[in-house]
Write a structure and sequence with these properties.
about 40% helix; globular; binds zinc ion
Length: about 325
């Protein structure tokens, strides 16, 4: 492994994207957004500090503007969606390691019991008494719950996130029908951080960016709807005193945003936008509105992450 790390001496910036740091046991919502337990996250941060340069959000902006500033292999940490465990579990660990991370907040959810569509769908599938789920929209999908609840949740969610053109409200109605149950109106206990928590993290050097207001897939919205949603989130972040020039596209796959989205994000005042379809950033070739990020796998221990980063650095492609 040290040999591999020496061979792949390429200068590059790897930006990792997490969603939740928590135990997966007894989880009532979507487990696929829980990438690490607090222990695993702590181990990963320790490894990154030992092996690489871990850069803060403002240093990412510097590297984009002045690529010569990037000496070796740098890693940055980001979080999407603003879950409560980002504050309770990740924040203390980041502080312990002296790491400053960026957090992308969908402003409709912060400080509320609102549930995003993936958690509503996961929770409803976990509660249904039906053995088979037959989804009719946006495409016909049939899943047997005996094959595993988590696999069923993943399959149903993909019907929407991979659709070329789909309406989230119609999709949610179809899930209710398929499960014979109403979606949860809100979470039993708060799933997202509060504005006070976001402000405390911001004072401690963490950067808060926008992840839109509603977390809808921007590519499926009109130009005006995109602008309205992105501006609304910016206004709220400014009002709460935690605004930055950073933005992350919801879902972040190539199909989740368009050239129009990029233009609209710039118009709303964002200078750096993060995607989520894999890859690392090579100095001099970084598009500030398409900063690549590496998704995290659940149950990846620190040594597996170390191998993945070494291979990714060498091949310039996300190893897995
Ligand atoms: Zn998100």
């Amino acid at each position: 492994l040290p040999l591999l790390e020496r061979v792949g001496k390429r200068r590059a910036l790897a930006v990792l994207v997490y969603h939740r740091i928590a135990s997966r046991d007894g989880h009532a919502y979507d487990k696929d957004v829980v990438e690490a337990t607090p222990q695993q996250f702590d181990d990963q941060m320790r490894m990154l500090k030992k092996r690489h340069t871990v850069v803060a959000p403002d240093e990412i902006a510097d590297i984009v503007a002045k690529p010569e500033k990037l000496r070796g292999f740098a890693v940055a940490i980001t979080f999407d969606d603003g879950y409560r465990d980002n504050y309770t579990n990740a924040f203390p660990i980041l502080k312990d390691h002296g790491i400053r991370a960026a957090f992308f907040l969908p402003t409709h959810y912060i400080g509320s019991r609102n549930l995003p569509f993936w958690d509503q769908v996961a929770n409803t599938i976990r509660r249904t008494k039906r053995k088979t789920i037959e989804l009719t929209y946006p495409s016909p999908v049939r899943v047997e719950l005996s094959d595993g609840i988590d696999a069923a949740i993943r399959k149903v969610l993909r019907a929407y996130t991979r659709a070329e053109n789909a309406d989230v409200v119609r999709f949610l109605r179809a899930v209710e029908e398929a499960c014979g149950l109403a979606l949860p109106a809100e979470a039993d206990d708060r799933q997202f951080m509060t504005w006070d928590e976001a402000a405390e993290m911001s004072r401690a050097g963490m950067a808060m960016g926008s992840h839109t207001h509603s977390h809808r897939i921007l590519a499926l919205l009109s130009r005006d709807e995109q602008l309205e949603d992105i501006k609304r989130s910016r206004d709220i972040l400014v009002e709460k005193g935690v605004s930055t020039d950073f933005f992350a596209y919801p879902v972040g796959k190539k199909t989740a945003f368009s050239d129009t989205t990029i233009a609209v994000a710039k118009e709303a005042g964002y200078r750096f936008a993060f995607t989520n379809y894999g890859g690392i950033n090579e100095p001099g070739r970084i598009d500030p509105m398409d900063i690549r990020r590496l998704g995290m796998d659940f149950d990846e221990d620190a040594s597996q992450l170390r191998v993945r980063l070494a291979l990714t650095r060498m091949t310039r492609r996300q190893a897995w």
